[in-house]
Design brief:
6 helices; mainly alpha; three-stranded antiparallel β-sheet; single chain; rod-shaped
Length: 194
């Protein structure tokens, strides 16, 4: 650490180092070295409060760890990891929960349609779109009651597959877009501190 920095800045870096203990050593050292250079530049300019605009060390560390989790989830491409990263951590807000929860629900429904399409050949009379008389009765897997008729037949398979693909692809694209937006917002906040 830079011994030329005032005590509050040195204390901030020490607390941040402890709060970033969940990160790998190399990554933690990079973050601390970059922040220390910014604080040193502020000190050389003669800024009175070197820590102006910086959140508490624990909050700053939580933002950094959340951003790292989002980057990892984006790189892996897993919808589950994207959803977990968007919902958790410092960057998780009520607005993100309102957006992410329905997208994860769409993922679940898409998966269910995929499973139903795969099971249709094994249970042809129990999976599909069912009517009773002229009215819609059920969609999916049902215990067929008297008067219920499955109307799609084998067209259930391509229809359910198409619905599954649209739901899974669309919700994954939306989750990735939310993650990239969150990362841009975090980068903008970090740039404002410099």
């Amino acid at each position: 650490m830079n011994s030329n920095l005032p005590k509050p800045a040195v204390d901030y870096l020490r607390h941040l180092r402890q709060a970033l203990s969940v990160l790998p050593d190399a990554e933690r050292q990079d973050v601390l070295a970059e922040l220390e250079s910014h604080l040193a530049a502020r000190h050389e300019r003669g800024d009175a409060d070197l820590l102006a605009g910086f959140p508490a060390p624990d909050e700053y560390a939580a933002e950094l760890v959340s951003a790292r989790a989002l980057n990892v989830a984006l790189a892996r491409g897993s919808s589950f990891e994207l959803g977990r990263s968007l919902l958790g951590g410092r960057l998780g807000t009520l607005a993100s929960h309102v957006c992410v929860a329905p997208l994860l629900g769409a993922q679940l429904v898409g998966f269910v349609f995929l499973v139903l399409a795969a099971l249709k050949p094994f249970f042809p009379a129990s999976i599909g779109l069912f009517t009773r008389g002229n009215a819609f009765s059920a969609l999916g897997a049902v215990s067929v009651e008297p008067g219920m008729v499955e109307v799609l037949g084998w067209w259930t398979i391509p229809l359910f597959l198409a619905v599954s693909v649209v739901l899974l692809w669309g919700s994954t694209r939306a989750l990735r877009a939310l993650a990239r937006r969150r990362l841009r917002q975090g980068a903008a906040r970090a740039a404002a501190l410099r």
